[in-house]
Amino acid sequence: MFKKIPLHTQIIIGLVLGLIFGLVVIKTAIPNSFTLDYIKPFGTIFINGLKMIAVPLVLASLIVGVSNLGDISKLSRIGGKTIGTYLVTTVLAVTIGLVLVNVFKPGKSLPPETRENLMSLYEGDAGSRVGQAAELQKQSPLQPLVDIVPDNVFRATTDNAAMLQVVFFAILVGIALLQIPKGKAAPVIAFFDGMNDVIIQIVNYIMMIAPFGVFALMASLIVEIAGENPDSAVQLLMALLKYSLVVLGGLFTMILVVYPLILMAFTKVKYKDFFKAIRPAQLLAFSTSSSSATLPVTMKQVEEELGVSEEVSSFVLPLGATVNMDGTSLYQGVAAVFIAQALGMELTLTQQLMIVLTATLASIGSAGVPGAGLIMLIIVLESIGVPAAGIALIIAPDRILDMFRTVVNVTGDATVCTIVASTEGELPDGLIRKSNPLTPNE
Ligand code: ASP
């Protein structure tokens, strides 16, 4: 009976019940420690499960994917399209954010006393993040390139943050498999192929507990945000409501207007079908705030529900989870201008163009984990001469906005993946749905 409810509906139920539970806890005498000690661990177990599977999944599916391509020219063509489309969507996203924040000017209406309060309240927090960003800035501008090549591949596979290094190594193995004698390559490919199926089966197991994991994540998030003083948390959020609405407006524009238009222009996939297929990934992105943790599910959904080939998805999606963050770059554009407005600084057109450039680069450099976008925002601020301590102004609603921008990040990756698959001649009729027992269709 429970099995009959589609997975995404089960996740939504978990999400809503988690929110309600969290609200009940902060409004009643139930101590917060109960949620943090006995409910939150189940959310952590769920996220750990997803993260546990990410590196083996990328390794196995990319090796099989590349070795199935047949020749290397196809790989470079897919690579070129992927990176080009990722860049275009990111620049589009920052531009939309900048237009909205310049039109609505949310920073101009922030009362000076609220500004002072926020600055003093979050000074320490902002300081520690400025420190983290300073560490990043000490590096050579070419450091991101250096970071792609692991000095020890086994160490790279033990660190989820080193996903690009794993991608790099897996592509090399795949290419080498294409070039050695077939007889020698076949058993290696067969091994990774079997491994790949094993891992996908494990993703299925993890998804069975998704509704409970999401419940735990939401309940503990509410309790943590509200902390000991729920009323002041609500007041702060209200003061920053206009800013938050501008960020949300931009994010919804991406999901409801930009991606559907791009999909319509380049594929035969109907946006409704696309949306339905990736809904579980979007819900997980929302509840985990991490594109990396969501990656196994994004891959599973585009392959099983949209019919994208493993060759394409195993290359496009892991790359996207680390470098393509449309939601994050849009948010960075809005936040940078908001802070400048609130501090009474006028930004010139050149400075705003600088934001497009640095927010694009910063979103490429942001890791797909909660809060990464906020740290990289500091680099954007410094490039236009706005004091980095200004992030104190926007820390309060950041955790919530992170959830929404991660949904956009993941949707952007899935959109580009679908486009690349379509332009490679896959999905000729718009939708080829493979059977998937765990996500019954409505
Ligand atoms: N949480 C985001 C992600 O994982 C990154 C960020 O904007 O903080 O996609």
The biggest sheet, with number of strands, parallel, antiparallel or mixed sense and barrel status, is: none
Beta-strand portion reads under 5%
Helix count equals 18
Count the beta strands.
Answer: 0
User: Mean pLDDT, nearest integer?
Assistant: 86
How many discrete structural domains? 1
Q: Rg to the nearest angstrom?
A: 22 Å
Distance between the termini: 14 Å
By secondary-structure content and strand pairing, the structural class works out as: mainly alpha
Shape estimate = globular
The second-level CATH architecture is Orthogonal Bundle
Say which molecules are bound, naming each kind only once.
Answer: aspartic acid
N-to-C SSE series?
Answer: HHHHHHHHHHHHHHHHHH
Uncertain runs: 435-442
Helical amount among residues, as a percent range? over 70%
Oligomer: single chain
CATH class: Mainly Alpha
Enter the CATH topology name. Answer: Proton glutamate symport protein
Sum up the structure in keywords:
442 residues, mainly alpha, Proton glutamate symport protein, 18 helices, 78% helix, binds aspartic acid
Structure description:
GO terms for molecular function: symporter activity. One of its GO terms (biological process) is L-alpha-amino acid transmembrane transport. The protein is mostly helical. The protein has 18 helices and no strands. It is globular and about 75 Å long. Residues 435-442 have low confidence and may be disordered. Bound molecules: aspartic acid (ASP). Aspartic acid (ASP) binds at residues 289-291, 325, 328, 366, 368-373, 402, 405-406, 409.
